[in-house]
Automatic annotation (TrEMBL):
GO cellular component: extracellular region
Pfam families in UniProt: CBM_14
UniProt keyword list: Chitin-binding, Disulfide bond, Glycoprotein, Repeat, Signal
Protein name: Chitin-binding type-2 domain-containing protein
Domain of life of the source: Eukaryota
GO MF term list: chitin binding
PANTHER family documented for this protein: CHITIN BINDING PERITROPHIN-A, LD20793P
SMART domains, per the entry: ChtBD2
InterPro entries xrefs: Chitin-bd_dom, Chitin-bd_dom_sf, Chitin_bind-dev_reg
UniProt signal peptide: 1-23
Domain Chitin-binding type-2: 29-89, 99-157, 162-230
UniProt keyword Repeat, yes or no: yes
């Protein structure tokens, strides 16, 4: 009886080992590099799929509709938007699974047929309205928010920024020091400034924790502008 149980256990162990070897061979994936951590690998033939090692356990995963795997994506479950992925020789299926407001279950889309500072982000087939940073407009070609003057004549930078650049500035003014990219303050806002690029306004921030001085038109440390203490 003992020998019979030992034989059964050995047979089960061999079956498990054989299954593991067959799975790895079938997947065409390298073994997990270590028993801990999470590692994702491209499938050699299918851009819609990838291999995932989770604490030493190898699984075959599939990207959601509208997403593909490139090893750099972080949109959802290690996958990226299909238009941002170069599949190379790997096959891929881009059949859309549409729902109201979403062509694919995951994707970025214009919010309207006109220049807009908002766009639609689809997550699991649900359309969510997202806002560009202040002063930017959505570019449907690059799927990003850009300066509105980069979308001429589709966009009107003056309408987006709310400022019209002058054709010239007084020779001895602070703005003249920065010509041909003159600067202007945003009334009541120490955190941002307007600069003109080829006659079109762009809304900027100083960055590095600095604030904009409306007198010198320079970016200064906050302690130099006590009246702007609440702008950070």
């Amino acid at each position: 009886m003992s020998r019979s149980r030992s034989t059964i256990r050995l047979a089960l162990l061999l079956a498990v080992l054989s299954s593991s070897v067959k799975a790895t061979t079938l997947f065409g994936a390298p073994p997990c590099p270590d028993p801990y951590g999470v590692h994702a690998y491209a499938h050699p033939e299918d851009c819609n799929s990838f291999f995932l090692c989770t604490n030493g356990t190898l699984t075959l995963e599939h990207c959601e509709n509208g997403l593909l795997f490139d090893g750099h994506g972080a949109v959802h479950n290690h996958c990226n938007y299909y238009w941002a992925v170069n599949c190379g020789h790997r096959k891929h299926d881009l059949t859309p699974l549409s729902s109201p407001g979403c062509e694919f279950q995951f994707g970025l889309y214009p919010d309207s047929d006109t220049c807009s500072t908002t766009y639609i982000k689809c997550v699991h087939g649900q359309p969510l309205q997202e806002h560009c940073d202040a002063g930017l407009a959505y570019d449907p070609k690059t799927h990003t928010c850009v300066w509105p003057d980069q979308l001429l004549p589709y966009c009107n930078p003056e309408a987006i920024v709310g400022f019209k650049c002058p054709h010239k500035v007084p020779a001895r003014s602070a703005a003249a020091k920065f010509w041909p990219f003159p600067r202007f303050p945003v009334p009541g806002d120490c955190g941002r400034l307007i600069t003109c690029v080829e006659g079109h306004p762009r809304l900027l921030t100083c960055g590095d924790g600095k604030l904009f001085d409306s007198v010198s038109l320079s970016c200064l440390e906050p302690e130099e502008l006590p009246h702007c203490a609440n702008s950070l």
